[in-house]
């Protein structure tokens, strides 16, 4: 029909897979007309779309005239279906399973400019603006320094932020234990960046809790581990066509500079002080709410219990996910960081309480 559109997602660069994240623009629409969009090649077998999650809509006119931002759209019309197709790109021409995502909506204004997205976008440019803002605040700059950890393959800066109060002496600062927090190793998991910005807003704020943390710990924060993937619109990979979160053990510094330098930073930090917590922020496409994955010690039972204290404080969700050997969480744990976690935020929303 005149108002039906079939869309095909581009795969991650230099791969033939990873189609889940989307973010596109629509112009010259008619208000009050029902449009149907169908994405034809999602690759995940299960998704929160099958539990009622809806795409996001942003209208430039609604934002300008009514200060309305991103909103869920397609209420009651989101369908997530399985379809088997022939993948001619594969050498053996074997049939693979792809998934259709269909939704309908009516745009609020004629001839508007609107955007539709899988999750609230968070760009590399937004991160740079945020870091510039905190660096230019004299009060914050007294306990927060922004450095360049390394350059990505495409020459984008990978930033690291050091946060700790000045202390009463050099020995005071040197004796503090460290906390390492990272995010956005998977570029399509934009909710990881929103969690990171909220974390930094709190840690750099004026609350008594934030001051206590700055006075007692050194925070090393890498807010965007995969800027290349973010810039080109990948869902999961870097410009090597590889998942960086499976390559923290790599010796290939030039191929995987972002995770190589992050691991090296943690190793150098551990030579100077104890790293008490490592936490990597991610987004999750199959589960609701916010929860954590940890590592399983097979030795001393008291250590096993100690590792569960921090997640218990954060969430009462239990993990039964298999460990993945090359992930940041596992590699940092094997380096000796006892409290090493992945924090996952849902793409869909909370099922807890009224929100």
UniProtKB/TrEMBL annotation:
Domain Peptidase M14: 120-355
Protein name (record): Cytosolic carboxypeptidase 2
InterPro entries the record matches: Cytosolic_carboxypeptidase, Pepdidase_M14_N, Peptidase_M14
Family statement drawn from the similarity comment of this UniProt entry: Belongs to the peptidase M14 family.
Subcellular location: Cytoplasm, Cytoskeleton, Cilium basal body; Cytoplasm, Cytoskeleton, Microtubule organizing center, Centrosome, Centriole; Cytoplasm, Cytosol
Lineage: Eukaryota, Metazoa, Chordata, Craniata, Vertebrata
PROSITE patterns: PEPTIDASE_M14
SUPFAM superfamilies found in the cross-reference section: Zn-dependent exopeptidases
Any Pfam family hit: Pepdidase_M14_N
Principal location listed in the UniProt entry: cytoplasm
Active site: 344
Keyword vocabulary terms for this entry: Carboxypeptidase, Cell projection, Cytoplasm, Cytoskeleton, Hydrolase, Metal-binding, Metalloprotease, Protease, Zinc
Reactions listed under catalytic activity: (L-glutamyl)(n+1)-gamma-L-glutamyl-L-glutamyl-[protein] + H2O = (L-glutamyl)(n)-gamma-L-glutamyl-L-glutamyl-[protein] + L-glutamate
Example of a GO MF term: carboxypeptidase activity
Keyword field contains Metal-binding: yes
Cofactor(s) essential for the protein: Zn(2+)
Keyword Metal-binding applies: yes
